[in-house]
Design goal:
single chain, mainly beta, Jelly Rolls, six-stranded antiparallel β-sheet, three-stranded antiparallel β-sheet
Length: about 150
C-alpha cells in the first residue's frame, strides 16, 4: 500500500486524523487496486469509506506505475499513471468539518506490505509467497501555488 495519515494521529487517533490511500493492493485479488479516503465520517469500520472501487491494472506486478493525488482545499483527485487519468474524486463537503474533511492539515507518507489483517487476511495468508518485495522507483511531492 501507498498511503498517508494525518500528522495528528497520536493525539486524536484514527480515523479522526484522516487517511488517504494512494494505492491499495490485496494479493488474493490480482490486478485490482483501490484508491480510498477515510475520516471520522467515512471509514471502513462503519462501512462508510469512500473509494474508487476496484480498478483493473493488469500489469501491477510486472511494471512500475504512477499513483498520485491532486490535493487542494476543494478536492482530492486520485490518478493512475497520467495526471489527467483521474480515477476517483472526493469533493470537499459543502459544510466541511473535522469529521468529514480532515484534509486541511499536514499528512505523512507510508509505504508497506501488510500481511493478514481485516482485509488482506480474509482468505488466509499464503506463506509460500515469501519472501515478498515491493519495489518503489521514486516518491515525489509537489506543492502548486494556486
Amino acid at each position: 500500500a501507498l498511503w498517508m495519515l494525518g500528522n495528528n494521529i497520536s493525539t486524536i487517533g484514527w480515523p479522526d486524523c484522516g487517511e488517504i490511500d494512494l494505492m491499495e493492493y490485496v494479493s488474493y485479488d490480482p490486478n485490482i487496486v483501490h484508491f480510498t479516503i477515510h475520516s471520522a465520517a467515512n471509514n471502513h469500520v462503519e462501512g462508510t469509506q469512500l473509494s474508487s472501487g476496484p480498478v483493473t491494472l493488469n500489469s501491477i506486478e510486472e511494471e512500475f506505475h504512477n499513483y498520485g493525488v491532486l490535493w487542494t482545499e476543494k478536492y482530492l483527485k486520485f490518478y493512475l499513471d497520467e495526471i489527467d487519468n483521474i480515477i476517483f474524486t472526493f469533493q470537499r463537503p459543502a459544510e466541511p468539518n473535522a469529521s468529514n474533511w480532515p484534509f486541511s492539515k499536514p499528512f505523512y507518507v507510508l509505504m508497506n506490505i501488510a500481511v493478514g489483517g481485516n482485509w488482506g487476511g480474509l482468505q488466509g495468508v499464503d506463506d509460500s509467497i515469501f519472501p515478498a518485495v515491493m519495489e518503489v522507483d521514486y516518491v515525489r511531492v509537489f506543492q502548486v501555488n494556486e
